[in-house]
Amino acid sequence: MKLDVNGRVHEVEAEPATPLLYVLREDLKLNGAKFGCGLGQCGACTVLADGEAIFSCLTPISVVQGRRITTVEGLGSAEKPGPLQRAFIELQAAQCGYCIPGMMMRTQALLERQPGASEAQIRDALQPNLCRCGTHMRIVRAALRAGELMRGKS
Amino acid sequence: MISGVALLSALAVVTGFSGCAARDVIVPAAQPPSFAREQVAKGAELAHLGNCLGCHTAEGGKPYAGGTPIKTPFGTIYGTNITPDAETGIGRWPLEAFTRAMREGIDREGRHLYPAFPYDHFTKVTDDDIAALYAFLMTREAVRQENRANRVPIPRAAVGVWKARYFTPGVYQPQTNRSAEWNRGAYLVQGLGHCGACHTPRNKLGAEEKNAALAGGEVEGWHAPALNAKSPSPVPWTVDALQTYLRHGIADLHAQSAGPMQEVTHDLEQVSDEALRAIATYIVSLDTRTPDERRRHGEQALERARKVKLMQGNAVYDGACADCHNRGRGEEGGALELPLGTALTVPTPRNLAYIIRNGIVPPEGERGPWMPAFAGMLTEEQLTDLLNYLRALSGEPAWPDVAREVRNLSRGEQ
To answer: Fold for domain A83-150?
Structure first.
């Protein structure tokens, strides 16, 4: 089965019903997306499929064949972080960090559609994602800042 | 088949047939013939209707120059050169000789032709059509290419015996109680189209079973399906569908043409709608089942086809839903077994579609039962398949046009 992840097509040997998350982490060694609940309740596994945020723990690879998958690794690297990553670093919007890749991907989906999203829109969009450390305020600020960076403000 | 060969040879000896010519040689005309443009064009269409190329053009060879091996239970016969080359083709054949070959299965030298050349069908072709076909062939590029020797252990004289037993010469006679279109179709199917050459079963001596016309035959290792009431087509053919199939090699609710039929439908791309409509009209009329029987047969097939679609929905369910919903509420993280879900049983798929797309989310900051949203994960098609599958789980009759509902939903919400 072929999967297009972060602009590269990978040939994957797995059952069609295998959750995308397992393939990303175990076969492709992309460990950004995290296993949290495995039930679509925490959002730690969030990635993008054609720009839409999805729970990769609930998504069988069979349904995302031929679609563009983006993980947090696809947004930039430690050396060359993308605007969303720069914003999260700038505002130090992580405590333990486990939920952050999921938070970032759902934010990315929103900002790709609406780079000028308001705080209320960001809060609404991030509803499915949980943070047990209570970093929410910083995460929302980082999301607002990322919007600015994407709109070209420095 | 050896017994058949032996029988024919023995018959030839017993009845005193020798290897020499059965009929007179027809001498070439002094002047090369000339033809009207319209007659040649008509002949071109007839050549496609008769799929002449099929046997008279070798793979990669020049058109109509012959050399195609035709495997029969009696040995291999090679299609002959029917270009107007004087030495190796039919350049020396006057129309009279060509007509005799078509109508009686005798070549210009007066010898019997093996019935692999389906003169048992071509005998029904009218003089006009034979003349047009002749005009077309005689205006092709003359190709000098020797005919290959047949590998058939049956003397040509034995073919005379075979003919006496199985071959009835004569032009197609219209049936007065049938429409002109039907008669035109019957003429083309039984005559030049020689459909029965493949689609009719043959006896041990290779003759078509007269009382089982178009009841399904064998060709090149393939089964040529029955075209009469025994048609195995899961959805019975209609005139419209068959006409489309003949022209394009494919029609809704029917398989693509394959095997030896592929080349036939390819040829029929060049044939007029009028002729294809007539052929389709005639063939569909052979299906003598009552309209009710035909409809039931087709509906059963469509029902089985829907089940295949349900398997796609099943695959989506297995990947995306089963983890929670197969566990049931009793287990940690488990959710309701879906045959117990109300949204599956209501008259519209919309409730279930809303739930799957948007999840069930309590108001912000409140506690409450919950289910994740799948909007971004599933394409419209996958959601449609899933809805159909879940509906089938409920035991209720299928929802009409789920795909349209899903499409409307996506438009309305984006």
So the answer is: DNA polymerase; domain 1 (1.10.150)
Q: How confident is the model at residue B23 (pLDDT cuts 50, 70, 90)?
A: confident
* B149 neighbors B91 (Cβ within 8 angstroms): no
User: What's the CA angle centered on B347, arms B342 and B348, to 5 degrees?
Assistant: 90
Cβ-nearest to B377 among A38, A39, A49 = A49
Chain B nearest-CA distance from A96, in A, is: 23
The DSSP code sequence of B122-162 is: HTTS-HHHHHHHHHHHHTSPP---PPPPPB--S-HHHHHHH
Confidence band, pLDDT 50/70/90 cuts, at residue B1: very low
Interface of A with B in 48-67 (CB under 8 A): 48-50, 52-55, 58-64
Return the CATH number of the domain spanning residue range A2-75: 3.10.20.30
- For chain A, say whether B365 makes contact (Cβ under 8 Å): no
Residues 6+ apart with CB under 8 A from B411: none
Q: Where in chain A is the domain with CATH 3.10.20.30?
A: 2-75
Residue B18 tokens, joined: 């020798």
Contact across the interface for B316 and A124, Cβ inside 8 Å: no
CATH code assigned at B332:
1.10.760.10
Q: Which residues of A touch B333 (CB under 8 A)?
A: 37-39
The verdict on A16 touching B (C-beta cutoff 8 Å) is yes
Number of domains in chain B: 3
Residue B14 pLDDT grade (very low, low, confident, very high; cuts 50, 70, 90) = very low
Does residue B117 sit in the same domain as residue B19?
Answer: yes
Residues B187 and B158 in one domain: no
Domain interval for residue B263: 179-203+210-288
